[in-house]
Protein backbone atom coordinates (compact mmCIF):
# COMPACT_ATOMS: atom_id res chain seq x y z
CA UNK A 1 0.00 0.00 0.00
CA UNK A 2 1.28 3.44 -0.83
CA UNK A 3 0.56 6.38 1.43
CA UNK A 4 0.92 8.83 -1.43
CA UNK A 5 -1.97 7.49 -3.48
CA UNK A 6 -4.11 10.16 -5.09
CA UNK A 7 -7.34 8.31 -4.41
CA UNK A 8 -8.92 7.97 -1.01
CA UNK A 9 -9.76 4.51 0.35
CA UNK A 10 -13.52 3.85 0.15
CA UNK A 11 -14.04 4.04 3.94
CA UNK A 12 -12.39 7.47 4.03
CA UNK A 13 -14.28 8.74 0.97
CA UNK A 14 -17.56 7.67 2.52
CA UNK A 15 -16.85 9.63 5.71
CA UNK A 16 -15.69 12.77 3.91
CA UNK A 17 -18.55 12.76 1.38
CA UNK A 18 -21.13 12.81 4.21
CA UNK A 19 -20.08 16.44 4.78
CA UNK A 20 -20.97 17.74 1.34
CA UNK A 21 -24.77 17.94 1.41
CA UNK A 22 -25.02 19.51 4.90
CA UNK A 23 -22.51 22.18 3.82
CA UNK A 24 -24.64 22.98 0.78
CA UNK A 25 -27.63 23.24 3.12
CA UNK A 26 -25.66 25.82 5.14
CA UNK A 27 -25.07 27.80 1.94
CA UNK A 28 -28.86 27.81 1.50
CA UNK A 29 -29.07 29.60 4.87
CA UNK A 30 -26.56 32.29 3.85
CA UNK A 31 -29.19 35.02 4.12
CA UNK A 32 -30.10 33.95 7.67
CA UNK A 33 -26.43 33.85 8.61
CA UNK A 34 -25.90 37.37 7.24
CA UNK A 35 -28.95 38.65 9.13
CA UNK A 36 -27.69 37.05 12.35
CA UNK A 37 -24.23 38.59 11.88
CA UNK A 38 -25.78 42.01 11.29
CA UNK A 39 -27.81 41.78 14.48
CA UNK A 40 -24.78 40.59 16.46
CA UNK A 41 -22.62 43.40 15.09
CA UNK A 42 -25.25 45.97 16.12
CA UNK A 43 -25.19 44.58 19.68
CA UNK A 44 -21.41 44.67 19.86
CA UNK A 45 -21.46 48.25 18.57
CA UNK A 46 -23.82 49.20 21.42
CA UNK A 47 -21.47 47.67 24.00
CA UNK A 48 -22.96 44.19 24.29
CA UNK A 49 -20.99 41.05 24.92
CA UNK A 50 -21.39 37.56 23.50
CA UNK A 51 -22.25 34.66 25.85
CA UNK A 52 -21.93 31.16 24.37
CA UNK A 53 -23.00 27.80 25.79
CA UNK A 54 -23.35 24.14 24.88
CA UNK A 55 -22.80 20.61 26.23
CA UNK A 56 -20.21 17.93 25.48
CA UNK A 57 -18.55 18.54 22.12
CA UNK A 58 -20.60 21.73 21.74
CA UNK A 59 -18.99 23.11 24.90
CA UNK A 60 -15.70 23.04 23.00
CA UNK A 61 -17.40 25.04 20.24
CA UNK A 62 -18.60 27.55 22.82
CA UNK A 63 -15.02 28.01 24.00
CA UNK A 64 -13.76 28.15 20.41
CA UNK A 65 -16.26 30.91 19.58
CA UNK A 66 -15.28 32.88 22.70
CA UNK A 67 -11.58 32.78 21.86
CA UNK A 68 -12.35 33.57 18.20
CA UNK A 69 -13.94 36.89 19.21
CA UNK A 70 -11.64 37.78 22.11
CA UNK A 71 -8.39 36.96 20.33
CA UNK A 72 -8.91 37.11 16.55
CA UNK A 73 -6.59 34.96 14.47
CA UNK A 74 -6.56 37.56 11.74
CA UNK A 75 -4.17 40.40 12.56
CA UNK A 76 -5.80 43.80 12.73
CA UNK A 77 -9.29 42.63 13.70
CA UNK A 78 -10.48 44.17 16.97
CA UNK A 79 -10.99 42.08 20.08
CA UNK A 80 -14.65 41.72 21.04
CA UNK A 81 -16.01 40.59 24.42
CA UNK A 82 -17.16 36.97 24.49
CA UNK A 83 -17.37 34.31 27.20
CA UNK A 84 -18.33 30.65 27.28
CA UNK A 85 -20.40 29.35 30.18
CA UNK A 86 -18.58 26.03 30.56
CA UNK A 87 -15.18 27.51 31.36
CA UNK A 88 -15.87 27.91 35.07
CA UNK A 89 -16.04 24.27 36.05
CA UNK A 90 -16.48 25.12 39.74
CA UNK A 91 -19.67 27.01 39.00
CA UNK A 92 -20.94 24.52 36.41
CA UNK A 93 -20.54 21.53 38.72
CA UNK A 94 -21.80 23.52 41.69
CA UNK A 95 -25.04 24.52 39.95
CA UNK A 96 -25.49 21.04 38.47
CA UNK A 97 -25.10 19.39 41.86
CA UNK A 98 -27.53 21.66 43.68
CA UNK A 99 -30.07 22.68 41.03
CA UNK A 100 -29.58 20.17 38.22
CA UNK A 101 -27.79 20.30 34.88
CA UNK A 102 -30.75 22.03 33.22
CA UNK A 103 -30.03 25.19 35.22
CA UNK A 104 -26.29 25.60 34.58
CA UNK A 105 -26.61 28.18 31.80
CA UNK A 106 -29.78 30.03 32.87
CA UNK A 107 -28.33 30.58 36.36
CA UNK A 108 -25.11 32.09 35.01
CA UNK A 109 -26.99 34.20 32.46
CA UNK A 110 -29.19 35.55 35.25
CA UNK A 111 -26.15 36.97 37.02
CA UNK A 112 -23.66 37.66 34.23
CA UNK A 113 -25.80 38.88 31.32
CA UNK A 114 -26.96 42.40 30.56
CA UNK A 115 -30.07 43.03 28.43
CA UNK A 116 -27.88 44.39 25.61
CA UNK A 117 -25.86 41.17 25.35
CA UNK A 118 -26.02 38.32 22.85
CA UNK A 119 -26.77 34.70 23.84
CA UNK A 120 -25.62 31.93 21.50
CA UNK A 121 -26.72 28.41 22.39
CA UNK A 122 -25.36 25.34 20.63
CA UNK A 123 -27.28 22.06 20.64
CA UNK A 124 -26.56 19.33 18.06
CA UNK A 125 -30.09 17.89 18.36
CA UNK A 126 -31.86 21.00 19.61
CA UNK A 127 -33.05 19.14 22.69
CA UNK A 128 -30.47 20.08 25.33
CA UNK A 129 -32.61 21.16 28.28
CA UNK A 130 -30.03 23.60 29.65
CA UNK A 131 -29.48 25.29 26.27
CA UNK A 132 -33.26 25.64 25.88
CA UNK A 133 -33.57 27.06 29.41
CA UNK A 134 -30.65 29.43 28.79
CA UNK A 135 -32.09 30.78 25.53
CA UNK A 136 -35.58 31.23 26.96
CA UNK A 137 -34.14 33.08 29.96
CA UNK A 138 -31.95 35.24 27.71
CA UNK A 139 -34.75 36.10 25.31
CA UNK A 140 -37.02 37.00 28.20
CA UNK A 141 -34.40 39.44 29.48
CA UNK A 142 -33.87 41.26 26.21
CA UNK A 143 -30.73 39.59 24.97
CA UNK A 144 -30.32 38.92 21.27
CA UNK A 145 -30.67 35.14 20.93
CA UNK A 146 -29.04 32.80 18.42
CA UNK A 147 -29.03 29.01 18.19
CA UNK A 148 -26.78 26.65 16.27
CA UNK A 149 -28.79 23.44 15.95
CA UNK A 150 -28.79 20.17 14.07
CA UNK A 151 -31.20 17.50 12.89
CA UNK A 152 -34.72 18.94 12.87
CA UNK A 153 -33.83 21.63 15.41
CA UNK A 154 -35.53 19.78 18.28
CA UNK A 155 -37.25 21.60 21.12
CA UNK A 156 -35.19 24.80 20.72
CA UNK A 157 -36.52 25.28 17.18
CA UNK A 158 -40.03 24.01 17.96
CA UNK A 159 -40.45 26.44 20.85
CA UNK A 160 -38.98 29.42 19.00
CA UNK A 161 -36.46 29.92 21.78
CA UNK A 162 -34.05 31.91 19.59
CA UNK A 163 -34.59 34.77 17.15
CA UNK A 164 -31.88 33.53 14.79
CA UNK A 165 -31.52 29.81 14.08
CA UNK A 166 -28.97 28.07 11.90
CA UNK A 167 -29.55 24.40 11.24
CA UNK A 168 -26.97 21.75 10.32
CA UNK A 169 -29.02 19.30 8.29
CA UNK A 170 -27.53 15.98 9.39
CA UNK A 171 -28.23 13.36 12.01
CA UNK A 172 -24.53 12.70 12.65
CA UNK A 173 -23.32 14.82 15.60
CA UNK A 174 -19.82 15.04 14.14
CA UNK A 175 -21.07 16.34 10.79
CA UNK A 176 -23.32 18.77 12.66
CA UNK A 177 -20.34 20.05 14.61
CA UNK A 178 -18.35 20.59 11.43
CA UNK A 179 -21.17 22.58 9.83
CA UNK A 180 -21.36 24.63 13.04
CA UNK A 181 -17.62 25.34 12.93
CA UNK A 182 -17.92 26.71 9.39
CA UNK A 183 -21.05 28.65 10.38
CA UNK A 184 -19.42 30.39 13.33
CA UNK A 185 -16.21 31.11 11.45
CA UNK A 186 -18.29 32.86 8.79
CA UNK A 187 -20.42 34.53 11.48
CA UNK A 188 -17.26 35.96 13.05
CA UNK A 189 -16.04 37.25 9.71
CA UNK A 190 -19.39 38.81 8.80
CA UNK A 191 -19.71 40.47 12.21
CA UNK A 192 -16.43 42.26 11.51
CA UNK A 193 -17.60 43.10 8.01
CA UNK A 194 -20.65 44.89 9.42
CA UNK A 195 -18.66 46.54 12.22
CA UNK A 196 -16.30 47.95 9.62
CA UNK A 197 -19.28 49.55 7.84
CA UNK A 198 -21.02 51.34 10.69
CA UNK A 199 -23.50 52.98 8.31
CA UNK A 200 -25.11 49.57 7.99
CA UNK A 201 -25.66 49.44 11.76
CA UNK A 202 -27.52 52.72 12.18
CA UNK A 203 -30.72 52.56 14.20
CA UNK A 204 -33.66 51.63 12.05
CA UNK A 205 -31.60 49.33 9.89
CA UNK A 206 -33.18 45.96 10.22
CA UNK A 207 -32.50 42.88 8.21
CA UNK A 208 -35.30 41.01 6.56
CA UNK B 1 -6.96 39.86 6.34
CA UNK B 2 -5.64 43.07 4.78
CA UNK B 3 -7.76 45.88 3.38
CA UNK B 4 -6.70 44.75 -0.08
CA UNK B 5 -8.06 41.27 0.64
CA UNK B 6 -11.32 42.78 1.81
CA UNK B 7 -11.65 44.79 -1.38
CA UNK B 8 -11.00 41.62 -3.36
CA UNK B 9 -13.59 39.69 -1.35
CA UNK B 10 -16.22 42.39 -1.21
CA UNK B 11 -15.56 44.68 -4.21
CA UNK B 12 -19.08 46.09 -4.24
CA UNK B 13 -18.78 47.58 -0.77
CA UNK B 14 -16.03 49.89 -1.70
CA UNK B 15 -17.72 50.98 -4.88
CA UNK B 16 -21.05 51.85 -3.27
CA UNK B 17 -20.47 53.18 0.22
CA UNK B 18 -21.62 50.16 2.19
CA UNK B 19 -25.36 50.18 1.77
CA UNK B 20 -26.94 47.48 3.89
CA UNK B 21 -28.46 45.55 1.00
CA UNK B 22 -25.16 45.55 -0.82
CA UNK B 23 -23.42 44.33 2.34
CA UNK B 24 -25.95 41.56 2.85
CA UNK B 25 -25.62 40.42 -0.76
CA UNK B 26 -21.84 40.41 -0.40
CA UNK B 27 -22.16 38.42 2.82
CA UNK B 28 -24.36 35.83 1.10
CA UNK B 29 -21.93 35.44 -1.80
CA UNK B 30 -19.02 35.15 0.61
CA UNK B 31 -20.79 32.40 2.58
CA UNK B 32 -21.59 30.41 -0.57
CA UNK B 33 -17.97 30.73 -1.74
CA UNK B 34 -16.60 29.58 1.61
CA UNK B 35 -18.82 26.51 1.80
CA UNK B 36 -17.62 25.56 -1.70
CA UNK B 37 -14.02 26.16 -0.65
CA UNK B 38 -14.18 23.90 2.41
CA UNK B 39 -15.93 21.17 0.42
CA UNK B 40 -13.14 21.17 -2.17
CA UNK B 41 -10.50 21.23 0.55
CA UNK B 42 -12.02 18.18 2.24
CA UNK B 43 -12.05 16.26 -1.05
CA UNK B 44 -8.38 17.12 -1.62
CA UNK B 45 -7.52 16.05 1.92
CA UNK B 46 -9.26 12.69 1.48
CA UNK B 47 -7.37 12.08 -1.79
CA UNK B 48 -3.97 13.10 -0.45
CA UNK B 49 -4.09 11.67 3.06
CA UNK B 50 -6.87 9.11 3.12
CA UNK B 51 -4.52 6.12 2.93
CA UNK B 52 -2.38 7.48 5.77
CA UNK B 53 -5.52 8.16 7.81
CA UNK B 54 -6.57 4.50 7.54
CA UNK B 55 -3.11 3.26 8.47
CA UNK B 56 -2.90 5.65 11.42
CA UNK B 57 -6.36 4.56 12.66
CA UNK B 58 -5.32 0.89 12.60
CA UNK B 59 -2.21 1.70 14.61
CA UNK B 60 -4.25 3.73 17.10
CA UNK B 61 -6.63 0.78 17.53
CA UNK B 62 -3.65 -1.49 18.21
CA UNK B 63 -2.35 0.96 20.81
CA UNK B 64 -5.73 1.11 22.56
CA UNK B 65 -5.95 -2.69 22.45
CA UNK B 66 -2.55 -2.85 24.14
CA UNK B 67 -3.75 -0.59 26.96
CA UNK B 68 -2.62 2.72 25.49
CA UNK B 69 -4.34 6.03 26.10
CA UNK B 70 -4.65 9.08 23.86
CA UNK B 71 -3.08 12.33 25.11
CA UNK B 72 -4.07 15.30 22.94
CA UNK B 73 -2.95 18.92 23.00
CA UNK B 74 -3.17 22.23 21.16
CA UNK B 75 -3.31 25.98 21.79
CA UNK B 76 -6.21 28.42 21.46
CA UNK B 77 -8.87 27.14 19.08
CA UNK B 78 -6.84 23.94 18.70
CA UNK B 79 -7.15 23.34 22.45
CA UNK B 80 -10.91 23.12 21.91
CA UNK B 81 -10.25 20.58 19.15
CA UNK B 82 -8.09 18.64 21.59
CA UNK B 83 -10.98 18.57 24.08
CA UNK B 84 -13.43 17.53 21.37
CA UNK B 85 -11.23 14.62 20.30
CA UNK B 86 -10.67 13.53 23.91
CA UNK B 87 -14.37 13.57 24.79
CA UNK B 88 -15.20 11.77 21.53
CA UNK B 89 -13.02 8.83 22.56
CA UNK B 90 -13.89 8.99 26.25
CA UNK B 91 -17.64 9.49 25.99
CA UNK B 92 -18.85 8.66 22.47
CA UNK B 93 -22.48 8.55 21.45
CA UNK B 94 -24.41 5.39 20.69
CA UNK B 95 -22.83 1.99 20.48
CA UNK B 96 -19.22 3.04 20.04
CA UNK B 97 -16.61 1.75 22.50
CA UNK B 98 -15.40 4.29 25.05
CA UNK B 99 -11.61 4.55 25.07
CA UNK B 100 -9.25 6.38 27.44
CA UNK B 101 -8.23 9.85 26.28
CA UNK B 102 -7.57 13.24 27.84
CA UNK B 103 -6.63 16.72 26.70
CA UNK B 104 -3.56 18.33 28.25
CA UNK B 105 -5.05 21.82 28.44
CA UNK B 106 -7.94 20.81 30.71
CA UNK B 107 -6.30 21.54 34.03
CA UNK B 108 -5.83 25.29 34.31
CA UNK B 109 -3.88 24.91 37.54
CA UNK B 110 -1.31 22.70 35.81
CA UNK B 111 -1.23 24.92 32.71
CA UNK B 112 -0.64 28.15 34.63
CA UNK B 113 1.78 26.55 37.08
CA UNK B 114 4.01 25.19 34.31
CA UNK B 115 3.77 28.40 32.29
CA UNK B 116 4.50 30.66 35.23
CA UNK B 117 7.25 28.61 36.84
CA UNK B 118 9.04 27.24 33.78
CA UNK B 119 7.54 28.63 30.58
CA UNK B 120 4.70 28.08 28.18
CA UNK B 121 6.95 26.06 25.87
CA UNK B 122 6.95 23.14 28.35
CA UNK B 123 3.22 23.26 29.16
CA UNK B 124 2.59 20.00 27.29
CA UNK B 125 6.00 18.27 27.32
CA UNK B 126 6.16 18.28 31.14
CA UNK B 127 2.72 16.65 31.24
CA UNK B 128 3.82 14.04 28.68
CA UNK B 129 6.79 13.35 30.96
CA UNK B 130 4.47 13.03 33.97
CA UNK B 131 1.63 11.00 32.40
CA UNK B 132 3.04 9.35 29.29
CA UNK B 133 3.50 5.58 29.06
CA UNK B 134 5.14 3.83 26.15
CA UNK B 135 1.83 2.33 24.95
CA UNK B 136 0.17 5.77 24.76
CA UNK B 137 -0.55 7.99 21.78
CA UNK B 138 0.36 11.70 21.58
CA UNK B 139 -1.78 13.80 19.22
CA UNK B 140 -0.88 17.47 18.70
CA UNK B 141 -3.11 19.89 16.79
CA UNK B 142 -1.87 23.19 15.38
CA UNK B 143 -2.96 25.37 12.48
CA UNK B 144 0.52 26.77 11.79
CA UNK B 145 2.53 23.67 12.72
CA UNK B 146 4.93 26.01 14.51
CA UNK B 147 3.81 25.94 18.16
CA UNK B 148 6.94 25.51 20.30
CA UNK B 149 5.08 23.66 23.05
CA UNK B 150 3.80 21.09 20.57
CA UNK B 151 7.26 20.49 19.10
CA UNK B 152 8.72 19.90 22.58
CA UNK B 153 5.80 17.64 23.49
CA UNK B 154 6.35 15.47 20.38
CA UNK B 155 10.06 15.18 21.18
CA UNK B 156 9.29 14.14 24.76
CA UNK B 157 6.63 11.68 23.56
CA UNK B 158 8.99 10.08 21.03
CA UNK B 159 11.69 9.71 23.69
CA UNK B 160 9.21 7.78 25.84
CA UNK B 161 8.02 5.50 23.05
CA UNK B 162 4.58 7.05 22.58
CA UNK B 163 3.09 6.97 19.10
CA UNK B 164 3.13 10.53 17.71
CA UNK B 165 0.49 12.06 15.44
CA UNK B 166 0.56 15.67 14.23
CA UNK B 167 -2.29 17.62 12.66
CA UNK B 168 -1.22 20.89 11.03
CA UNK B 169 -2.18 23.38 8.33
CA UNK B 170 -0.62 25.53 5.58
CA UNK B 171 2.62 23.70 4.68
CA UNK B 172 3.00 21.89 8.02
CA UNK B 173 5.39 24.50 9.39
CA UNK B 174 8.05 23.27 11.79
CA UNK B 175 6.06 20.10 12.47
CA UNK B 176 6.89 19.07 8.89
CA UNK B 177 10.61 19.21 9.79
CA UNK B 178 10.21 17.13 12.93
CA UNK B 179 11.84 13.71 12.45
CA UNK B 180 10.12 12.36 15.59
CA UNK B 181 6.60 12.58 14.12
CA UNK B 182 5.30 9.21 12.93
CA UNK B 183 2.24 10.65 11.19
CA UNK B 184 1.68 14.21 10.05
CA UNK B 185 -1.58 15.33 8.48
CA UNK B 186 -1.36 18.70 6.78
CA UNK B 187 -4.41 20.65 5.60
CA UNK B 188 -3.16 22.55 2.56
CA UNK B 189 -4.96 25.89 2.90
CA UNK B 190 -3.84 29.43 3.69
CA UNK B 191 -7.07 30.19 5.60
CA UNK B 192 -6.84 29.45 9.31
CA UNK B 193 -10.62 28.97 9.41
CA UNK B 194 -10.73 26.48 6.54
CA UNK B 195 -7.71 24.68 8.06
CA UNK B 196 -9.57 24.26 11.36
CA UNK B 197 -12.74 23.08 9.62
CA UNK B 198 -10.89 20.45 7.58
CA UNK B 199 -8.86 19.40 10.64
CA UNK B 200 -12.12 18.79 12.48
CA UNK B 201 -13.24 16.41 9.72
CA UNK B 202 -9.83 14.78 9.75
CA UNK B 203 -9.83 13.94 13.45
CA UNK B 204 -13.51 12.98 13.39
CA UNK B 205 -12.67 10.53 10.58
CA UNK B 206 -9.63 9.32 12.50
CA UNK B 207 -11.85 8.60 15.50
CA UNK B 208 -14.49 6.85 13.37
CA UNK B 209 -11.90 4.65 11.61
CA UNK B 210 -10.12 3.93 14.91
CA UNK B 211 -13.21 2.78 16.81
CA UNK B 212 -14.25 0.70 13.78
CA UNK B 213 -10.81 -0.96 13.71
CA UNK B 214 -10.90 -1.41 17.49
CA UNK B 215 -14.39 -2.94 17.43
CA UNK B 216 -13.27 -5.26 14.63
CA UNK B 217 -10.60 -6.65 16.91
CA UNK B 218 -12.56 -6.63 20.15
CA UNK B 219 -16.15 -7.10 21.19
CA UNK B 220 -17.64 -3.83 22.32
CA UNK B 221 -17.34 -3.67 26.12
CA UNK B 222 -20.46 -3.46 28.26
CA UNK B 223 -21.49 0.16 28.75
CA UNK B 224 -20.31 1.62 32.05
CA UNK B 225 -23.06 1.37 34.64
CA UNK B 226 -22.71 4.13 37.24
CA UNK B 227 -25.07 2.21 39.56
CA UNK B 228 -22.98 -0.96 39.34
CA UNK B 229 -22.79 -3.19 42.42
CA UNK B 230 -19.19 -2.30 43.17
Automatic annotation (TrEMBL), chain A:
It holds the Pfam family SIS_2. GO terms for biological process: carbohydrate derivative metabolic process. It comes from the Bacteria. GO terms for molecular function: carbohydrate derivative binding. Coiled coil: none annotated. Residues 40-203 form the SIS domain. This is SIS domain-containing protein.
TrEMBL record, chain B:
GO terms for biological process: carbohydrate derivative metabolic process. SUPFAM superfamilies: SIS domain (SSF53697). It comes from Actinospica durhamensis. Residues 60-219 form the SIS domain. One of its GO terms (molecular function) is carbohydrate derivative binding. PANTHER family: SEDOHEPTULOSE 7-PHOSPHATE ISOMERASE / DNAA INITIATOR-ASSOCIATING FACTOR FOR REPLICATION INITIATION. This is SIS domain-containing protein. The lineage of its organism: Bacteria, Bacillati, Actinomycetota, Actinomycetes, Catenulisporales. PROSITE patterns: SIS. It holds the Pfam family SIS_2.
Amino acid sequence: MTLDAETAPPAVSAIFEQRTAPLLALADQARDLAAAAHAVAARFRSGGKLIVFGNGGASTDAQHIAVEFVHPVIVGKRALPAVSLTSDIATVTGIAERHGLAEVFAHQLNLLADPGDIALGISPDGDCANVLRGLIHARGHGLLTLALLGGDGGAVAARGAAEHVLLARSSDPRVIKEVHVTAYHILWELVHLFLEHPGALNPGRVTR
Amino acid sequence: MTATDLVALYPFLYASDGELDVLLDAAVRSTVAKTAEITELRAELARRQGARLELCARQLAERFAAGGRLLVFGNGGSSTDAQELATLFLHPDGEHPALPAFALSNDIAVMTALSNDVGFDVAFSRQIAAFGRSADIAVGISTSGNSANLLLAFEEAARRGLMTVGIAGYDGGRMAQLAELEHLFVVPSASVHRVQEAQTTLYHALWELTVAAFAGRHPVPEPFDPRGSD
